[in-house]
Amino acid sequence: GNGYTPPLGYWQDADKTAALLRGGVVHTGDHGSLDAEGWLSIADRSSELILRGGSNVYPAEIERVLHMHDDVADCAIVGKPDLRMGMLTVACILPARADVDVDALKAGLQALCAEKLVRYKMPDEWRFMEAFPRNAMGKVVKPKLREIVIAQD
């Protein structure tokens, strides 16, 4: 064998198992790339991909940049439907302090993104929030967050 043991599948879910295990290969749903030395870098989950104006935008890449700012406790990028672009990127920000100057924070984050990201990956919209919807593991529930963002419009 090749030294690796694939999972048996999902408990009582034949459809998810069929999507996971195809042709003896485990399909994780991750997007990544190999560098010249063969090292794998994971970009993001396929399900998180935002198609903005014909370009692929991976939320995790933008989130890594936003997390560099000291006044960001947490952040999440979600896609929002748009007639012209297909999807827009919305940066949802949880400030580190309640008394933070949101306008100054937004300006600082925009400058940071302009320095670290190509233009089409810069967030189209900004939402400053007091809390994010989370699951039992504490992970942000992005489909619910997307619903909240769309409902605010």
The structural class is alpha+beta
Main sheet characteristics: 3 strands, mixed
Helix coverage percent: 25-40%
The CATH topology of the largest domain turns out to be GMP Synthetase, Chain A, domain 3
Number of helices: 4
Mean pLDDT: 86
Total domain modules: 2
> What's the architecture of the largest domain, going by CATH?
2-Layer Sandwich
Radius of gyration, Cα only, in angstroms?
18 Å
CATH level 1 name of the largest domain:
Alpha Beta
Strand content: 25-35%
Instruction: Give the neighbour order of strands across the main sheet.
Output: 7-8-9
**What's the order of the H and E elements?**
HEEEEEEHEEHEH
CATH-level-4 superfamily name of the largest domain: ANL, C-terminal domain
| Low-confidence runs of at least 5 consecutive residues | none
Count the beta strands.
9
**Head-to-tail CA distance between termini:** 54 Å
C-alpha geometry: globular
Notes on the protein architecture:
- With 153 residues, the protein is α+β, with helices and mostly antiparallel strands.
- The protein has 2 domains: 1-48, no CATH class; 49-152, ANL, C-terminal domain (GMP Synthetase, Chain A, domain 3).
- Helices cover 27% and strands 30% of the residues.
- It has 4 helices and 9 strands; from the N terminus they run H-E-E-E-E-E-E-H-E-E-H-E-H.
- It has helices at residues 14-20, 59-66, 102-116, 142-152; strands spanning 21-22, 25-26, 30-34, 40-45, 50-52, 55-57, 72-82, 86-95, 125-128.
- Strands 7-8-9 form a 3-stranded mixed β-sheet, with helices on both faces. A two-stranded antiparallel sheet has the order 1-2.
- The radius of gyration is 18 Å and the shape is globular.
- The mean pLDDT is 86.
